[in-house]
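Hi R.,

Here's the chain you asked about this morning:
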Amino acid sequence: MTARIVSAWRLALMATALAASGSAGFAKAQDAGNEITVEAPRSVPIPVERNPYTGAAIATTTVRMSVLYGDLDLTTQRDSDRLMLRIRNVARDACKQLDRLYPLNPDESCVDKTVETSAPLGQAVIAAARGH
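And here is the predicted structure, written out as tokens:
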């Protein structure tokens, strides 16, 4: 993938969208050219160290997957909808991967939370493509 220089206004728009997402850091997304990285973290028990207050061992594992959109014309509604569908599908795939890694620690709301925090960046990329 070739690196692109992203203008300051586009970065500001994306940062604003991420800040507005308001989710407690469940998933992060970042734009690197024609790619959005969707992150689906999962807290899992580990037998190494324990929380001194509760005795519970806690770690967070994150699965990161990319959503490519260089082939889409985001000025059209059809391709904008495709980008948002791709974000949901990648979030689903990332959460399925976490379920395979940690079958005893499922999170039924993983996909919804991951989409909730990743979708604002997709919307910001669409707005930037449309010149808003």
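One quick note: Residues 74 and 126 are 6 Å apart (CA to CA).

Cheers,
M.
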